[in-house]
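Dear support,

Our group has been running a series of protein-ligand predictions, and this particular one with pyridoxal-5'-phosphate is the one our PI (initials K.S.) wants archived with full inputs and outputs. We had some confusion internally about which version of the output was final, so please treat the block below as the authoritative record. The input we submitted was:
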Amino acid sequence: MIKQNLTNIVARIEQARLAYSSHQIIKLVAVSKYHTTQEISELYHAGQRAFGENKVQDLCAKSQALAHLPLEWHFIGTLQKNKISALLAMNPMLIHSLDSMPLALALNKHCQKLGITQDVLLQINASNEDSKHGFVLESSLEMYLQIQETCHSLCLRGLMTIGKNTQNTKEIDSCFAQVKRAFDMLPQADILSMGMSSDFEIAIANGANLVRIGSALFQ
Ligand SMILES: *Cc1c(COP(=O)(O)O)cnc(C)c1O
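Confirmed final output from the archive:
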């Protein structure tokens, strides 16, 4: 079942990728936040390696329970400052959700102490929905440059956004297009994380090269 879901999603990603550009390389992060280590293991055996969690406790528990598998973990949720140490101890591949300047400074400080460099994305609240975290689109370049300049233990790789929560595909499309334009202005940015189960094809059509898919994989 999960194996078939993966096959279907990979085929849909491939179709959207070819429609965008045959030169594009797209990474799939399986969002396992509502799912058990048993289901993650099943998806691993079907070929999936990258998994995303939105709570530090869950990422820690699952990555420890599955330490025997060569998985890479992505953190995609709101990061509280008192959870930074626990998260860094799990050696996450990428933190997608750097959503404020104080968080950047705090994260940088922890990394500096540990002598590590952490890959991160700036989270952009492109839909301007109050429920969502992140920097406003208009400030993304300035904040990006400021963090690059002041946080030498963080390696900024690009942007992450969550598509607008609407059925109106035109609005979702325009929101992703705006984030892509902002992404293209950033120096040395190579990861554009956008697209979930309901909108990943629209995200890929707008240049996303990392999609975060949960429900469509694990259903
Ligand atoms: C839950 C979540 C996803 C995956 O959502 P689905 O609709 O289940 O594919 C992607 N990104 C973030 C930040 C999430 O919290």
